[in-house]
Amino acid sequence: MFAYYFQLGLRSLRRNPALTALMVMAIGFGVAASMTTYSVFRAVSGNPIPDKSARLFTPQIDAWGPQQNLKGEPAEAVGYTDAMALMRAHEAKRQTLLYQVQLSVIPEGNRDMPLNAISYAVSSDFFSMFEVPFRYGGGWSAQDDDARASDVVIGSELDRKLFGGANSVGRTLNLGGHDYRIVGVASHWNPRPRFYDLFSTNGFAEEPDIYIVFNRALDLEMRPSGRNSCRGSLSFTTWQEYLQSNCVWITPWVELDSSAEVDSYRRFLTNYADVQQRAGRFAWAPNVRLRDVVQWLDYEKVVPPESRMSLVVALGFFLICLVNTIGLLLAKFMRRASEIGVRRALGATRGEIYAQYLMEAGTVGLAGGVLGLLLTAVGVAGVGVLFQPEIAKLATLDPSLVALTFAVAIAATVLAAFYPAWRAAHVQPAWQLKSS
User: Fold this and answer.
1) Which residues, in sequence order, are CB contacts of 25 under 8 Å at separation 6+?
2) 19 in helix, strand or coil?
3) Which of 166, 178, 207, 385 keeps 20 to 30 A from 35, CA to CA?
4) Is 67 helix (H, G, I), strand (E, B) or coil?
5) pLDDT digit string (tens) for 393-409?
6) Structure-model confidence comparison of residues 24 and 256, the more confident one
7) Cα–Cα distance between 406 and 32 in angstroms, integer?
8) Could you tell me which of 204, 182, 177 has the C-alpha nearest to residue 191?
9) Which InterPro entries did the record assign (predicted)?
């Protein structure tokens, strides 16, 4: 019966082309608007590291006080003094510090112009904590951190530019006039949003090219190329004065495997801030935070408000299209009341009438899904009109979006057809036979 009702549905599409075209267009445009905006929303609101997001935390310590902090919230990063204290305490199984630096890559033989590279100074645990995949080699060790080694990990795109994609582990790379040994080549890895650095980026920046040893960057007095936030008098002139200032520019991350470890680390942060208060460095009560990845993304409001608003507007438009579809289906079904009466008189049950007309609505939804898919492809290609380029390029028409487009189109149309089908199933055969 399924195949039979499907054939009836296809015939019905040709019976009244104008009415069918209106319904298909209503479903197609509604689905396309919803799927286009959803493709953007999905890209910017996803969990960038789902298997570990509940175990990765970023500590915050208020080093500015209630008169200068962010409406009672600690700064989004920490300064050098607090960062070093967290690392020395080593209260977490894994921990890393990171900040953006600007490095110039000098190609071998000085044959080409230097390349500007997106770079991060990080600690050795960075790679295991954030599950950075490697094409060749790996990260450096904790001993290399302590030795302030001239080791670097480069991205696969930079490896392609400099070495043609070959295994470059062990080779020397000149960065800003200093030689570094390549210990690893990371595969393409750029979690979106870039949860680990929302202090200096909006979460959707290009893939980093180079990772260098954090302590080595400090030794070379590499100032942050990302955001740098200070409060009060900025009287420092030397690198050491800058390190001892209240400027925040370093993002700490820790890995905690259980709620007990989270509670313990939170107590450690509170006790640390209390010690700083008693030592006279802080003149306010301890004010600390410990947020996991999802909480951090929510606090930083990573999802652009325009993506939420456009999704709501698109869904509202889709709802209006469905309301119109209900009216069109009702008109289409009730025009065949005499046909329904004859079928009922010949023994068709209401359930069979339901099945026939819901299947017919499903064929309308399928046709609307085809149109919606074509319009969604156009919409995805043009989302740059509404969104920033680095966000717009995240919207893609992948197989999952194709399947969702058809599923939404068919399901929504069948749902919209329940009331018209109910009216059709309750046609009184006697009245229709008498009037005929």
Assistant:
1) 368, 371
2) helix
3) 207
4) coil
5) 777 888 989 999 999 99
6) 256
7) 10
8) 204
9) ABC3_permease_C (IPR003838), MacB_PCD (IPR025857), Macrolide_Exporter_MacB (IPR050250)
